[in-house]
Amino acid sequence: MDMYEDIIYGELLEWKREMMRKPTIGNKLSKNIQDKMNGFIPEKFHVMVTEVIKNMVKVVILGSEYTTLEPITYMPIIEREMLVKEKIQLYRKVATVSGASTGFGGFFIGLADFPILLSIKIKLLYEIASIYGYDTKDYRERLHLLYIFQIAFCSDKRRIEVFHILNNWKSYSDKLPLDKENFDWRIFQQEYRDYIDLAKFFQLVPVIGGAVGAVANYKLVEKLGDTAMNGYRLRYFH
């Protein structure tokens, strides 16, 4: 390996250790508290988020408007990752502006940020996949994107399960049927909703909503970008 590969391999090993970390008592306690807090959030809010995520997942599985990007071939890993980092920075800025503007707009305008943010994240993942050289016209690559998305925003218990899938993606994907519906969107939307509900709920609060929305969106896109990079590094070193 060259020097850059040595650096990112070390980062990958650290990420793998983080992904395999067992849930602590504190994690379980936090999850219980979050579940109780979710009870205070209006049911209409939960229903709306669930439907948005469900429909977006179906869009990804069917591959409609996001599959126009062509995979980049014959490029050194260091140049690929420079492009990926530029994309993450760009989408992070877009998400930050969206969170701030919708957050300052009050409750109903704040709700609009959910589909906007989800679309931003999915589009970012498609661009990252193409930069690493993978063709998202293949539905198995789109499923890979969804598993990356899921491991970025899920409970500790589910995180370990998804990591095993990503870490053994070649053998897993080889066994996938031709059925494009082979993905449990129910688990996906529930884990994602539970992960972001509390932070995004405060975005709907007048006055502080704009600041909360900007910071939350910035952090969420940053986390997704970092997760995606390590997810594709797994395949690179395999």
Per-chain topology:
Elements: H1 3-19, H2 25-38, H3 43-62, H4 77-103, H5 107-111, H6 113-131, H7 139-152, H8 156-167, H9 169-174, H10 185-203, H11 209-237
Helix pairs in contact: 1-11, 3-6, 3-7, 3-10, 4-6, 4-11, 6-7, 6-11, 7-8, 7-11, 10-11
Helix fraction, binned, reads over 70%
Question: What is the N-to-C succession of helices and strands?
Answer: HHHHHHHHHHH
Q: How many DSSP H or I helices?
A: 11
Radius of gyration, CA atoms, in whole angstroms: 18 Å
The 3D shape can be described as globular
Low-confidence stretches: 105-109
Annotation, overall tally of beta strands: 0
Organism: Clostridium sulfidigenes
Protein name: EcsC
InterPro entries: EcsC
Structure write-up:
The chain has one domain. The two termini are 13 Å apart. The protein is 76% helix and 0% strand. Helix 4 (77-103) runs antiparallel to helix 11 (209-237), helix 6 (113-131) packs parallel to helix 11 (209-237) and helix 7 (139-152) runs antiparallel to helix 8 (156-167). The protein is built from 11 helices and no strands. It is mainly α and 238 residues long.
How would you summarize what this structure contains?
This protein is mostly helical. It has one domain.
Q: Notable features of this structure?
A:
238 residues; 11 helices; EcsC
